Amino acid sequence: MEHNYKPKVLSYFKYYKGKGTINDNPFPCEDIRSRFWHGECMLANLLEQCGSEDEENAKISVWAADVTRWRSLLKEHKTNQSARFLRDNTDRQLAIALYIVTLWGKWCPHEGEDFIFDY
After folding, report:
1. DSSP labels for 9-44?
2. What is the largest CA-CA distance in the chain?
3. Domains of the chain: which residue ranges?
4. Are 96 and 12 in contact (CB under 8 A)?
5. Rounded distance, CA 49 to CA 57, Å?
6. Relative to the CA of 109, which of 16, 98, 100, 101 has its CA 20 to 30 Å away?
7. Using CA atoms, how far apart are residues 5 and 81, in angstroms rounded to an integer?
8. Exposure b/e, 14-25, CB count within 10 A at least 16 = b
9. Which residues contact 117 (CB under 8 A, 6 or more apart)?
10. What is the H or E stretch that residue 54 is in?
11. Which among 108, 110, 106, 118 has a CA at the least distance from the CA of 82?
12. Cβ atoms < 10 Å from Cβ of 6
């Protein structure tokens, strides 16, 4: 049986629209949008393994649970940079951004997380 679940969270993505693999990134690697597209693609791949919206919500809630803590941390330590970022993104989008920061932090820990303010 072919699995064809499409994550509902795709509508919250800013760059990846549900088509293509990480090898199909339309942005040049030096473009910051490339990093965001890649992160959203990776999250979509993780969520496509879900069989239902409830299962998807359970997986995304793992990231959403840390949004409040992350929001407080950003307000305290990155006051000037985080104001627009926090204002312009919903909690669901912040959960996606947190996933992206965590993903890139694992593979490029020396680069920091300030790139996410351009999300």
Report:
1. GGGG-SS--S-S-GGG--S-TTSHHHHHHHHHHHHH
2. 51
3. 32-118
4. yes
5. 12
6. 16
7. 37
8. ebbeeeeeeeeb
9. 78, 81, 82, 84, 85
10. helix 53-64
11. 118
12. 11
The per-residue pLDDT string of the chain (119 residues; one tens digit each, 9 = 90 and over) reads: 345 667 788 899 999 998 888 899 999 999 999 999 999 999 998 888 888 888 888 888 888 899 999 999 999 988 888 999 999 999 989 999 999 999 988 877 777 788 999 99
CB-CB contact of 91 with 67 (8 Å) = yes
Residue reference for tokens 């351009």: 118
Question: Cβ atoms within 10 A of the Cβ of 112, count?
Answer: 11
- Residue by residue, DSSP assigns 87-116 as HHS-HHHHHHHHHHHHHHHHH-GGG-SGGG
Amino acid identity, position 106: K
Cα distances (angstroms) measured from residue 57 to each of 5, 43, 47, 50, 111: 13, 13, 9, 9, 30
Residue 16 in tokens: 């990846």
